[in-house]
Amino acid sequence: MLALLFSLTTTLSFAKENTMSEPSKVKLTTSLGVITIQLNPEKAPISAANFLTYVKEGFYDGTIFHRVIPDFMAQGGGFDTSFTQKAVHAPIKNEANNGLANKRGTLAMARTNVPDSATGQFFINLKDNTFLNHTSPTPSGWGYAVFGEVIEGMDVVDAMAKAPTGNRGGHQDVPKTDIVVEKAEVVE
What we know:
There is one protein chain. It contains three helices and ten strands. It has helices spanning 2-20, 45-57, 154-161, and strands at 25-30, 33-39, 63-69, 73-80, 106-109, 122-125, 146-152, 165-168, 171-175, 180-186. The strands form two sheets. An eight-stranded antiparallel barrel has the order 1-2-7-5-6-4-3-10. Strands 8-9 form a two-stranded antiparallel sheet. A hairpin with a 2-residue loop joins strand 1 and strand 2.
C-alpha cells in the first residue's frame, strides 16, 4: 500500500511539474506588426490551454481580425482571408469568474450568447470593458473569460482600431483591408 501511495505521489508531482513548465507566451506576427501575449494559465487554465492548442496546431496562421470596433475590441481567430469560417474543436467551459478583468490590452474568449460556447475566437480589449466582466453565474452575468494580456505590440492593436471597416459576409465592423495573423507561435 505504501509503495502504491509513493507511486501516486510521484506521478502527481511529475504531472504538476509538467503543467508548470507549460509555455505561457505567444507571438502573433500580423500584417500590421508583432503582438506578444502573456497567457495566464494559473487563473485561466482551460482558456489558456485551449488557445495554446490552436497556436500549436497552426490554426491561427492565415486568419484575420474580422471584427474591429474602435474604443471597444478587435476580434479574430475564426475566419481565413477568404472569409471562410474555420473548423474548430468542441466549446470550452467559461472561466470568466476567474477574477481577471476585461481591461485594456487583455485577451478574452469570444463566444455566443451561450456562456460555455467559446472555441477558437478571441478578442483584444481596446479599452477597459467592465461590462464584459463576470457578475453572476447567469446567462446575462457570465461575462467573457480573460486568459492573457498583450505585453508587447499594443501599438499594433491600436493601429487595428484605426483601420476603416465595413460589412462583409454578413458581418459588420470588418476591416476593409485584411489584418492577417501571418503566424502564431509559442515563444516560451
